[in-house]
Amino acid sequence: MDRTEQKLCSVISTDPRYRGGNGNALGDNYPLAADAPQKTMLGMPATALSTTAFGTYARKRGEGWEANWFVARAVVEYLFEIIMGTRNSQAAFNAELDANGLRQGGFGAGATNMPNWGTYNGYYPVIPTSVGLELGDGVGLVDYSVTNADGVAVYQCKVPVFFGLVNAGFGNLWRWVRGLTVSQTAGEKTEVFVAKSMYAAFDPANIGEGMRKTCECPQREGYIIKKSYEGLCCMPTSVGGSTATYYCDYFWTNAATQTGLRVRAAGGA
Predict the structure, then answer these.
(1) What is the C-alpha to C-alpha distance for residues 203 and 59, in angstroms, rounded to an integer?
(2) Angle CA(66)–CA(139)–CA(83) in degrees, nearest 5?
(3) Minimal CA–CA distance to 68: which of 81, 87, 82, 49?
(4) pLDDT tens profile 201-235
(5) What is the C-alpha separation between 263 and 125, in angstroms, rounded?
(6) pLDDT of the residue at 73
(7) Counting C-beta atoms within 10 Å of the first and last residue's C-beta, which end of the chain has fewer, N or C?
(8) What Rg value do the Cα atoms of the chain yield, rounded?
(9) Quick one: the chain helix, strand, coil %, rounded to 5?
(10) What gap in Å lies between CA 167 and CA 175, rounded to an integer?
(11) Which positions ≥6 away from 197 have C-beta within 8 Å?
C-alpha cells in the first residue's frame, strides 16, 4: 500500500510510505526488537484490509488494475500442477529433475507453521517481502529465521519461490480472491460466480449481470477430491480426500449452517 496516496502497489520497499500490516508499527506488548520488521511493519505486505478495500485502492491506479483477481490466482494453481507435476503443493521439495528433465515435488510446509503467532505479533506479517529475491526468477526454497528481541529464532521456515513468485500458492497469509463470489443457501447449494471482465465494476456483496455461474461447491468441509476450472474459478466440487490423496488441500466452508454471499480466502496456513 502507498499509505500517502492510499493506492495499492506492487513494490518491495522499507520506506514508511509503504508500511505493511495495517499501516502502523506494533506496540511494545510483543517480544520483538524495536527495529524488527515484524514490529515496524516496514517492508511487509499490507494486511487487515477487506476485499472491497483492496479492490478500491488497486483501481485508484487506473482502469484494469485489481487486487489478486481470480484469474491471477488460477494461473499460479494450474501452472504449479503442470510444471511441478503434482497436485500436492506441500509435498517435499526436490531440486532434481526427473529422468525426463521435468520438475518433481512440491514446496514442503513453506511458511505455514508459524508457532504462537498471536502472541508473537498479533497475526501480522512475519515474512518480509524481500525474502526470496536472491533466487531471482528461479524455483526453490529460501531459508528465513523469525526471531525474538534477543535474536533467538522462534521459527525457521523455508519460503517457496516459483519462477520468482514468492510464497507461490500458499504461505502464512490468507489472500482475498477478487472477481469471484460464492452464494450459499444453507442446506441446499453453494454456487460460484466469476466476473466476466476485470474492467467491470465488482462488488462481492452483489451478483450482477456481469457475473457468470461456473460450478457448485460442497456444503461440507474436507480435503479436496475434485475442483472445477470452468471460467478459471479453481473451486472444489467434491471433498472427502486426505493429506496424502487427490489435491491434499483442505476446503473450509460454513455453508451447511450459513446463508449469504462469501468471498474466497486462499493460500493461507
Answers:
(1) 13
(2) 80
(3) 49
(4) 899 999 988 899 999 999 999 999 999 999 999 99
(5) 21
(6) 93
(7) C
(8) 19
(9) 15, 30, 55
(10) 11
(11) 210
pLDDT for position 269: 74
Tracing cell 447449494 back to the chain, one arrives at: 189
Q: What cell does 48 get?
A: 487487515
State how far the alpha carbon of 195 is from the alpha carbons of 15, 212, 214, in Å. 35, 6, 10
Measured CA to CA, the distance from residue 109 to residue 156 in angstroms comes to 11
pLDDT less than 50: residues of the chain: none
Over the range 121-134, which residues count as b (16 or more CB within 10 Å of their CB) and which as e? beebbbbbbebbee
Is the separation of the CB atoms in 135 and 195 below 8 Å?
Answer: no
Strands, DSSP E only, in the chain?
93-94, 104-105, 139-147, 153-162, 165-166, 175-185, 189-195, 211-217, 222-228, 235-239, 250-251, 260-266
With beta carbons less than 8 A apart as the criterion, state whether 90 and 110 touch. yes
Half-sphere exposure of residue 178: CA atoms within 13 angstroms, side-chain side? 25
Close Cβ partners of 244 (under 8 Å, ≥ 6 residues apart)? none
| Grid cell of 35 as nine digits | 527495529
DSSP state of 66: -
> In one letter, which amino acid is 44?
M
Q: Report the first-to-last Cα separation within the chain, whole angstroms.
A: 23
Chain centroid to CA 99? 32
Question: How many angstroms separate the CA atoms of 10 and 131, rounded?
Answer: 15
Please answer whether residues 260 and 247 qualify as being in contact, where contact means their C-beta atoms are separated by less than 8 angstroms: no
Q: Could you tell me if 158 and 139 are in contact, meaning their C-beta atoms sit under 8 angstroms apart? A: no
How far apart CA 215 and CA 235 sit, in angstroms, is: 8
DSSP state of 265: E
Phi-psi region of 151 (alpha: psi -120 to 50; beta: other; left: phi over 0): left
